[in-house]
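Retro notes, structure queue

What went well: the backlog is down to a handful. What didn't: a couple of records were mislabeled last round, so from now on we paste the full input next to the output in the thread. Example, using Ferrochelatase from Vibrio breoganii:
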Amino acid sequence: MENQSKTGVLLVNLGTPDEATPKAIKRFLSQFLHDKRVVDMTRWLWCPLLHGVILPIRAPKVAKLYQGVWMSEGSPLMVFSRRQASKLKQSLNVPVELGMTYGNPSLLSGMQSLLEQGVEKVIVLPLYPQYSATTTAAVVDGLGKAFKQMTVVPSFEVIGDYHDHPLYIKALADSVRESWRERGESEYLLCSYHGIPKRFADNGDVYPQHCEKTTELLAQELGLGSDRMGMTYQSRFGREEWLQPYTDKTLEKLPNQGIKKLDIIAPAFSVDCLETLEELSEECCDIYKEAGGESFNYIPCLNDSDKHIELMASLVNARLLNGE
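Corresponding output:
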């Protein structure tokens, strides 16, 4: 396509600490938890609590958790994100850069790298299948801040979500089927999504509807009824009510319902990270087995699999064609 040489792609994810050290964790969490999209508490109440209590206590603990999942090339989220960008660039034959909402590489550096390659239009692909103000909208906010620091602002288009895209559903289903071929089919498949405060959904965030639709379509693709598959929300933080049912509480109950062999998958995460490799794969496994579960199998994220790259390429190509 003639205009492809002037079009580039910015792949966006949440971000990750630069190192698995308390100092780097503190720096990353400070930026993340200062975002009003993530924590909307009054600043004069929140900031002293964050810097005086939460970060000093949490940073060393989180650093130890990161050390347990850190790869030789760096943070799992960054390693897989780099691989995704490289493979997508090969597939599309257009410039592709990474930009993280928090941490490095920043949205600003990603945009600047694309402009240096002669890009005039940027297709922004936040790797959040299900839209939420806490993630996708935070990307748009971050882009606005980045543009304020740029002399030349490119035209851009944001892909808002892909929670019901056929290639996304098929890629998830294929990853489940591959796990079944290798390990055998379980009695139950649990889809665990990252949670958000219930108040956000009550105020109009469509995230839970998107999660429910993804689960429904995946169940159809796999041919599983409600007796064989369900969905929950993980990673809650603070004291207020988050979206339910909670993953950890559900795992405590399932063995008593006769489900002793469980598969768990995290459809909202495009790459494996601390929340999947440590919280889901290890913590949740312990919770389930302590409650009487016998077999717990975590199915990895789509990461840089061929089916995932095919999905990303399809999402971008649809925008390239529309831009003709």
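Agreed that this is the format going forward. Reviewer comment attached to the example: The mean pLDDT is 95.
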